Amino acid sequence: MPRKIVTASLFLVLMLFVSFNSVSALDLTLTVYTDKENYLIGETVNIYGQVLFDGHKVNESLVGIQVNSPSQPLLYRTFFIYEVELPPVLEGDLNGDGYVDIFDAVKIALAFGSQYGDPNYDLIADINKDGVVDIFDMVVVAIHFGEGSPPHIWRMEIIDTFIADYYGRPVSQVKRGSLYFIWVRFKNNQSNFIKANITYTIYDSENNPLYSDRVAQEVPPGGPYEFVSAFTVPNDAALGTAKIYANAYSNLPQDKGYPHCPEKSSSFEITSSTSSSTVATPPTIQQNESNYNILFHLKTGFQTGTYTVHVTAFYHTGVIILLSYNSTSFTVSTP
Q1: Which of 4, 57, 241, 328 sits a CA distance of 20 to 30 A from 115?
Q2: Distance CA 156, CA 154 (A)
Q3: What element of type H or E holds 138?
Q4: pLDDT tens-digit profile of 276-314?
Q5: Domains in the chain: boundaries
Q6: Which of 171, 205, 184, 203 is nearest to 261 (CA)?
Q7: Nearest to 105 by CA among 140, 131, 132
Q8: Distance in angstroms (rounded) separating the CA atoms of residues 123 and 27
Q9: What is the per-residue DSSP string for 176-237?
Q10: Contacts of residue 65, Cβ cutoff 8 Å, sequence gap at least 6
Q11: What pLDDT was estimated at residue 61?
């Protein structure tokens, strides 16, 4: 049976034109659940819960999730709670903000005429993935220009993330045992410095977290800025489509930091010249009463012992900003 963790109390209220005493009755409740207390290597962990404002589910809230293994951080994720669902993926929306506009056209313009291997080649701008950024890619943006909804302007945001070779050229396929580099590009939309922890986590096709990394810094206004980290593809990584999830937090969730913005993700293929594999489909688990949910698989070789889950919630009521924190743990053992 799922177990409910005791609700965390509101730990911080930031006021905007409202005195502290006038909001003493407000309550942001953050719960966290795990579907089991003890897992075996090879099982899937399901973490989910609710964010409630004065007892009601919230809309457009951010939930930061950090899972630590017995020795180190395992993964970082941010869940954007949206009233129905996240805006649909739009053809021509190259920066993933849910709106096809001039910024998407500029992305193609900067790489226009380049081919795979050129310094300014951009895999994202190469919409039809024919190895050349040309008029056919620009036409896609032109056809869909203006579709979607203008994006929410976050104080800070992740622009994109991708895997690249030694020269910083984005790649769509990688090989086990080879060295690559993870790029995370971000910007500060405010006129002042913002404290940020930029993180990423890589999952393979079987939903196994392969690697995570982070950097803490004071981000100047503007951008884009870049965080680059080396990554060697594990020899036991599952073949097929892998994903990168990039996030930005004020502090890490374990330190009660909150997400600055929704996460960004991208995909790449893990291949091998010596073996083949059938890609497993991760299970889908629905929790009707939850409004955030993540799954990950415990592959062979994961550490046994106690894992800790840290969750934080960020919610702007329109007048004030509310933050909340909670945590729980589970154990992992061998079959």
Answers
A1: 241
A2: 5
A3: helix 135-144
A4: 344 444 444 444 455 888 999 999 999 999 999 999 999
A5: 3-87+149-333, 102-144
A6: 184
A7: 140
A8: 45
A9: TT-EEEEEEEEEE-SSS-EEEEEEEEEE-TTS-EEEEEEEEEEEPSEEEEEEEEEEEPPTTP
A10: 47, 75, 76, 77, 78, 79, 253, 292, 294, 309, 310, 311
A11: 87
Q: Return all residues near 150 (Cβ < 8 A) that are at least 6 apart.
A: 99, 101
- Residue 239: its pLDDT value, please? 94
pLDDT of residue 299: 93
| β-sheet bridge partners, residue 44 | 297
The DSSP element (H or E) to which 174 belongs, if any, is strand 173-175
**Tens digit of pLDDT for each residue in 37-47?**
999 999 999 99
Q: Hey, what amino acid is at 89?
A: V
pLDDT exceeds cutoff 50 at 8: no
Tokens coding 142:
């032109």
Give which of 80, 17, 83 is closest to 258, Cα–Cα.
80
Which CATH number is correct for 102-144, 3.40.50.300, 1.10.10.10, 1.10.1330.10, 3.20.20.70?
1.10.1330.10
Would the pTM of this model clear 0.85, i.e. be above it?
Answer: no
Tokens encoding 263: 């996460």
Fold of 3-87+149-333: Immunoglobulin-like (2.60.40)
Where is pLDDT greater, at 153 or 46?
46
Q: What is the largest CA-CA distance in the chain?
A: 66
* Residue 107: count of CB within 10 angstroms of its CB: 20
